[in-house]
Design brief:
Elements: H1 5-38, H2 45-56, H3 58-76, H4 81-111
Length: 123
């Protein structure tokens, strides 16, 4: 079963998105965490884990893994390639949300508020 040209194009776009998400997550993590550290902020564990992962190149490892799985699906499971790649894209977006929480954790800690205007505790 041959893939439609639009499906092939969409698979290529998804692979590019894996790498764009990885590059943005890597850059934003290193830039923001170093900015907080330069102010002398005590970094929470989530921020430290995200920073260490970015320094080790974890976003690029995930992008490489997801790209390899998508290429494998393109050649071995053509009828499921689009479905597999969309699921991997959803996982990549979810992991970028984890990075976003890790990056913003130093901001919420000193303020004591997760959402501005809402108290952190009910007491």
């Amino acid at each position: 079963m041959k893939q439609a040209p639009s499906e092939t194009l969409l698979l290529r776009v998804i692979i590019i998105l894996f790498w764009v998400i990885a590059a943005i997550a890597w850059w934003a993590t290193l830039w923001h965490v170093e900015a907080f550290a330069s102010f002398g902020a005590e970094l929470p564990l989530s921020t430290t884990l995200v920073r260490d992962g970015a320094k080790m190149g974890v976003p690029f490892a995930f992008a490489g893994l997801f790209s390899a799985v998508t290429f494998y699906a393109m050649f071995r499971h053509r009828h499921r390639a689009l479905l597999i790649s969309v699921w991997l894209l959803c996982i990549a977006i979810a992991l970028s949300l984890v990075v976003m929480v890790g990056i913003t954790a130093p901001i919420t800690r000193p303020c004591g508020e997760i959402v501005p205007g809402w108290p952190a505790g009910l007491s």
